[in-house]
Design goal:
Elements (H helix, E strand, L loop, with lengths): L8 E3 L7 E5 L5 H7 L3 E2 L6 E5 H9 L3 E3 L5 H11 L3 H13 L3 E4 L7 E4 L10 E7 L8 H13 L3 E9 L12 E8 L27
Helix pairs in contact: 2-3, 2-4
GO molecular function, one term: tRNA-intron lyase activity
Keywords: Endonuclease, Hydrolase, Nuclease
Pfam families: tRNA_int_endo
């Protein structure tokens, strides 16, 4: 059965937790696996755990259903209560997923997300995404940007700072409406550059992974 016509997977959310559980026996499992939504439990292979961002995105596209949270509003309120950074993280997550990127955790690189053009089994991530909520008490410093760009240069990636701005009249009932992403692209600038193209930013390309013999 095609995943678009298959019934949504029955997901479970426990209040206060920052992950959602989906059974791997659902008819949506092949879709979750190919598109890289969540991870299979290392102990119980019949459970797949998803982040709040993944779960909300999949619920809005009809791939999962949380019985205890039957409306998007209820889901948004519960997820925001569990993690107050959820609104800004989801806004960025949905933006890149809707553009066709495979969005994965960026914890390994000290950022929010990393973006893959194709399966992570085939290529390396091209972008490191740092999500910054403009209402946060944590300022976005040049020291942080310098650290990220130096790290990105070492691992052959580009830094994307995604500033999530809220409309002046925004409140939680509006959910993601009224939340806007402003993207800033940073890349290490070498001392040597081509004359006349000092400010040019080359297009990013996927780097294939080496195959193991």
């Amino acid at each position: 059965m095609d995943h678009d016509t298959a019934p949504p997977a029955a997901a479970t959310f426990v209040s206060g937790q920052t992950a959602v559980c989906v059974p791997t026996l659902s008819r949506q499992e092949a879709y979750f696996s190919v598109k890289r939504y969540g991870v299979v439990d290392s102990v119980d292979e019949y459970q797949r755990w998803m982040t709040l961002e993944e779960a909300f995105f999949l619920a809005t596209t009809g791939h999962i259903h949380i019985e205890t949270l039957s409306t998007q509003g209820a889901m948004w309120a519960a997820f925001t209560s569990a993690d107050d950074s959820f609104p800004s993280r989801y806004t960025a997550y949905a933006l890149y997923r809707s553009r066709g990127w495979i969005v994965q955790s960026g914890l390994l690189y000290g950022v929010t997300f990393v973006l893959y053009r194709m399966s992570p089994d085939i290529v390396h991530a091209e972008y490191m995404v740092y999500v910054h909520d403009t209402t946060s008490s944590c300022a976005l410093s040049w020291q942080l940007l310098q650290m990220l760009t130096r790290l990105a240069e070492d691992v052959k990636k580009t830094v994307l700072v995604c500033e999530v701005q809220r409309a002046s009249d925004w409140d939680a009932s509006l959910m993601y409406m009224g939340l806007v992403c402003k993207e800033l692209c940073f890349r290490h600038w070498p001392a040597l550059f081509t004359e006349g193209a000092s400010f040019a930013m080359a297009e990013s390309h996927a780097i294939p992974k080496r195959t193991r013999s």
